[in-house]
Amino acid sequence: MRTATLGLARGGLELRQFFRNTAGFLFTFALPVFLLLLLGSIFSGQAPGAEFTQQQEFTASMIGAGIISTTFITLGTGIAQDRENGTLKRLHGTPLPLASYFVGKVVLVLVLSLAEAVLVLLTGVLVFDVDLPADPARWLTFAWVFGLGTISCALLGIAVSSVAGSARSAPTVLNLPYVGLQFVSGVFISVAVLPQWMVVLGSLFPLKWVAQGFRSVLLPEGAAVVEVAGSWEHGRTALVLVAWCVAGLALCAASFRWTNGRSGG
Fold first, then answer.
1. Residue 69: which residues within 8 A CB-CB, separation 6 or more?
2. Which of 77, 94, 99, 149 is most exposed, with minimal Cβ within 10 Å?
3. How far is the C-alpha of 1 from the C-alpha of 136, rounded, in Å?
4. Which pTM does this prediction carry?
5. Do 137 and 201 form a contact (C-beta atoms < 8 A)?
6. CA 151 to CA 147: how far, in whole Å?
7. What's residue 216's pLDDT?
8. pLDDT recorded at residue 151
9. What is the DSSP letter of 131?
């Protein structure tokens, strides 16, 4: 209970610090919405051979892209900065458990990801007339895809933060896989037209499954025929995301260090 309480308190502090950073705040929330507006305006009307609009498809996929932005990018750069400016080293010398620090980070990205998802949905509804589902079962699917997707991408962001040599290089290290994965995971381009090797590559990472899960919520049931397997594959989506949560925990345990120096351990 003490670890959870301290983690929630740390999460409140993380949120206050984030919203005080105006540039970071605007970039985090504006980028997925900007991309949705751009893509939805260029590619309008019904998707080829399907009974749904391309704006519906982009809205669902950009929720997934927004999650990886607010988890993988935010945590990867944020923890690299904490490590470089000595925040982690100072926390290491306090009674704050390491688990509480991570709980605080997870609270941060859960709030940001939920706000991002709502903002993208509102944009889709107000600008592109995207219809929200009335079936509670679809919203239940939305909830577990959102939860598993946020946790798995957050853990990957924590693990990758140790790869960046400095806070300055962190955005470069993190943005390359972030942009690349959006192309091979069916966010910008439908998986139906991607080369087979891209489909295989995208299937190895969480974003493809998160975006597919959200498409299963916002698109009609018949839209599953344009997916690689011809179905929404909810069971496989859950298994892959749970596997990435477990792998992410292992990577965090193996790679996390308090300082940039070798002695920080």
1. 28, 31, 32, 116, 178
2. 94
3. 33
4. 0.87
5. no
6. 6
7. 94
8. 92
9. P
Task: Convert the pLDDT of each residue in 106-115 to its tens digit.
Answer: 899 999 999 9
In this prediction, residues 241-259 reach a mean pLDDT of: 87
SS in 3 state form for 34-72?
HHHHHHHHHCCCECCCCCCEHHHHHHHHHHHHHHHHHHH
Q: Is residue 117 predicted with pLDDT exceeding 70?
A: yes
Angle, nearest 10°, between helix axes 136-160 and 206-218?
A: 160
C-alpha–C-alpha distance, residues 203 and 184, integer Å? 9
pLDDT band at 47 (very low <50, low <70, confident <90, very high): low
Say how far apart CA 67 and CA 52 lie, in whole Å. Answer: 23
Nearest CA among 143, 157, 114 for reference residue 245:
157
User: Residue 163: what residue type?
Assistant: V
> Long-range contacts of range 80-84, CB-CB < 8 Å, 24 or more positions apart?
80/161, 80/164, 80/166, 80/167, 80/170, 81/167, 81/170, 83/161, 83/167, 83/257, 83/258, 83/259, 83/260, 83/264, 84/166, 84/167, 84/260
Tokens 């910008």 found at: 188
- Angle at 118 (CA atoms; ends 171, 113), nearest 5 degrees: 35
Q: Which of 5, 243, 207, 8 is nearest to 105 (CA)?
A: 8
Using alpha carbons, select from 91, 133, 115, 140 the residue that is nearest to residue 256. Answer: 91
Of 217, 55, 234, 52, residue with least CA distance to 132 = 217
Backbone φ and ψ of 231, nearest 5°: -150, 170
Between 40 and 239, name the one with better pLDDT.
239
What DSSP designation does 194 have? S
3-state DSSP call for residue 11? helix
pLDDT value at position 6?
86
User: In this structure, how many other beta carbons lie within 10 angstroms of the beta carbon of residue 16?
Assistant: 9
